[in-house]
Amino acid sequence: SALRLAGGRSRCEGRVELELAGTWGTVCDDSWDLADGDVVCRQLRCGRALRVHGDAAFGRGNGTILRDEVACQGHEQHLWDCPAELEHDCSHKEDAGVLCSEHQEWRLSGGQDGCAGRVEVFFRGLWNTVCDSSWYQLEPRVLCHSLGCGEPLQHPSFNHTLPGKMFYLCESPQPSLAHCRWIYNKSALCYQSRAAGVVCSGMGP
């Protein structure tokens, strides 16, 4: 068996999908709760569940609905170790999803539009700033591309005013900053840093 999250903005957010005998299917949201989400997040090395979703919040899946009335205690190693009904009365409009704590998403704030400003990353349930101590050419380019904002034009600096600090180091082009090396709240790496910013060439929303 295998497990994945689909339809989210990172591998740690999305619709819960299980593989059985080579085909992927979904989980029904009946009695889907945080204990069930915790097991999924931990199994995927995505931390813990911040929120669980029903009603196909990440889109409707395909294939068979493989589990209904999932009843994890929260300590199980795998989702398929949890009690569940294999027969169901659900449709894909009830596909279950989860947002895990290790999910990362980004925004640019304080600029003229969504393609300029201070870089902020949502991680472990909070918005945080990014240290500019390793904010070279590649890191802003990865971010501008992942936001659909074109190429980086400038790298202004800002003050750190949010609870945590993220450090990114990209060694090659990647689909998002989460695919680069990243370290959270390690003060030595961020010593005397300012908060990274970027002005991308595209027009933001």
Give a short synopsis of this structure:
One of its GO terms (biological process) is zymogen activation. With 205 residues, this protein is mainly β.
Structure overview:
The protein has helices spanning about 35-45, 140-145, and strands at about 1-5, 15-20, 25, 50-55, 65, 95-100, 105-110, 115-125, 125-130, 150-155, 155-160, 165-170, 180-185, 195-200. The chain has about 200 residues and is mainly beta. The chain has 2 domains: about 1-100, SRCR-like domain (Mac-2 Binding Protein); about 105-200, Roll (Mac-2 Binding Protein). Strands 7, 8, 9, 10, 11, 12, 13 and 14 form an 8-stranded mixed β-sheet that branches. Strands 1, 2, 3, 4, 5 and 6 form a 6-stranded mixed β-sheet that branches. The longest helix is centred in the first third of the chain and has 10 residues, at about 35-45. The radius of gyration is 19 Å and the shape is elongated. The protein starts with a strand and ends in a 5-residue tail after the last strand. This is CD6 protein. InterPro entries: SRCR, SRCR-like_dom_sf. It comes from Semnornis frantzii. It holds the Pfam family SRCR.
